[in-house]
Amino acid sequence: xxxxxxxxxxxxPYEHSQIRDKAWEPGDEIAGGWSLERLLHMNDRFADRxxxxxxxxxxxxxxxxxxxxxxxxxxxxxxxxxxxxxxxxPRQATAKYCxxxxxxxAYLQRKRHP
Length: 114
What we know:
Layout: H1 17-20, H2 36-56, H3 66-74, E1 79-80, E2 87-88, H4 100-112
């Protein structure tokens, strides 16, 4: 990259030196140092080792947090808000209030009447 006065700024583009030197041929991969076959091979090795780690108990699969909420909503369940009593689907397992407004009003009520 060059500035307006022509001086080079930062590191020279070593990755694209084949273009600068006109030593490239059509079909050469310029963006990256790995061929597609090598990338696929590395991905397969990674996936295999990860599956072995799952099987041996060294790693655990994470679950989507939306799935339990979706099941709760589909079953018609939910929990009651600690302030207004409205039934709602909690976003977190520790949620007590249906909205930020109820949370703030409960806080103000606790402060007024300790």
